[in-house]
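Exercise 7. Given the components listed, write out the predicted structure of the assembled complex. Treat all entries as one system.
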Amino acid sequence: MDQEKLERIRELKELWEQELADLKERKEPAETVSGQPVKMLFTPLDTKNLDYERDLGFPGSYPYTRGVQPNMYRGRLWTMRQFSGFGDAYDSNRRYRYLLEQGQTGLSVAFDMPTLMGYDSDSDRSLGEVGRCGVAIDSLEDMEILFDKIPLDQVTTSMTINGPAAILWCMYLATAEKQGVSLDQVGGTIQNDILKEYIAQKSWIFPPEPSMRLITDIFEFASDHVPKWNTISISGYHIREAGSTAVQELAFTLADGFAYVEAGINAGLDVDRFAPRLSFFFNSHIDFFEEICKYRAARRIWARRMKEKYGAKDSRSLKMRFHTQTAGCSLTAQEPENNIIRTAYEGLSAVLGGTQSLHTNSMDEVLALPTEKAVKIALRTQQVLACETGVANTIDPLAGSYFIEALTDKMESEAEEYFSKVDDLGGVLPAIEQGFFQQEIADAAYEYQKAVDRGERIVVGINRYCSEEAPDIEILRIDPEVERKQLERLKRLKETRDGGRVSDCLEELKRCAASGENLIPKILEAVRAYATEGEITAALKEVFGEYREKPLF
Amino acid sequence: MENRKIRVLVAKPGLDGHDRGVKVVARGLRDAGMEVIYTGLHQTPQQVAETALQEDVDVVGLSVLSGAHMTLVPKIKELLTEKGLDDVLLLVGGIVPADDAEKLRAEGHADQIFTPGEPLEKITAYIYDWFKAKSNS
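Answer.
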């Protein structure tokens, strides 16, 4: 836009501001959910430095602000992938087959706490937790049951597993082999993002150094044998759920992403050999525009740094592909039906932000794991969004909005400021050790809670428009029998498998862990021999030790 | 009324790593003038009870969001009683369905349960009221 026109807009804006002088404003602060003040109006003055080719480009081309595919949802809709798992492998297998029958297009496995932490169901630490907040998996036998009658050459599966990711991934690969599916045909994702565990989600096992080695071992093995696998899902979701702001989610997640890139390069891998299989996972919180800008900024930052700093040449290394889940922490236990509405808006911003796949939360997830009815409504929310609202017709429809472009830029530069801070602390691992991310998130979470308690941040049903009625919806109950049956089956497995072969495999694993060879083939062997997750983890702990966090609040 | 700070142990028993709520509550109680000890994550019931004894606390607050509350809470109450700490106020926060909460209270495993969405002041007021009543009795 030429200077003369901008000058004219500036004059008109002053006139408009004079009009405002006598008008009253609502008393609630105009801020995003992250506490960022938002101006009343954006104009061409806010985007005067925007350069279409440099800052936006076309979908499928650098810097990918507008999306990673040239045709986006006109080619294929996002994958509708509901995160699910509860009880034992039989219970979850039934739920997966139900979801696939309802038109879901990919699977996403939620494991129970013992599985996430590397304990078998029969460990003392597992008491009361078996099958509670996800499915209980102890050995290859459970994984075979979990995917019974689900063809692993046709369905892709995402697994939320981090500390013991290599073990559960090997169980999945061994299950595919048993189905007669070759490894180069198997597709899916393991979360495998240990850095955000130390930062936010807190399901860790080993200290950082051996954990990072397991991750680069996975990168290497997958690039040779499982080329369709997303070896990591670098996750902001949990950082946000732990209470971060949108910019913190953006910055910390990308900082983690770059740390993995550096770890791969330092392990001697060429960046273009593993970077195309890196994927991301973001939260979609309730602040509609802020979220859309976050996704657009994330793609642009990733592409620019991968190209300029890490010298990636393969365009697939520059494209940030991501999964999105609507914000669990935005839901309320009060009037849970309102959560359907919140989730629909959050799903919409994820789609307007160009997500590759989406999980929409069920209305009852703040109370328990979802019932079949609740998860069906959540899936239908996506189907209505995709097929009825018309939002999938045109790509990145909000591009060029003065507000959207100005906020995208602002979030990018604020993320850059965080990258400098992390660099000053010596990088991501030293920053974790110093509690930097953890403290930033705890501070933001506390500020948010205080704003809600003061009534400055309105949450319907919590501090505004409250009703006295207790929630009256059916919730899913996990039968305590699940734990007993799982323990029985595990006992039977341990009695019937070839115990000698198991102990040989575990010895070999320990040797390999101490030596520095790639661990994945050894873990795969142990899994095939029906060594349990707890046994494999215990063997690795002998060599690697365990992580401990210094508590702070 | 005793003129001293109320000592509170906030704890994360079990394998659950969701610590947003527990940290917010810990800070809220501290800002409300209490002495707060936070155990950190992944505590066994034995560790929680032992820390409560060592730290000589008035209140134990447990945060459980993994669904294991019906196992962990009664276990911790039992261990506290064994250690002679049955006069300690036992509070629970987290994802606890209403009928489980009722059962925990009715059977004497916990004194009060706070679920998502409740304001910090409600928790601090509850503790101060309890402490006042106890000191006056």
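Discussion: Residues 126 and 388 of chain A are 45 Å apart (CA to CA). The first helix of chain A runs from residue 3 to 20.
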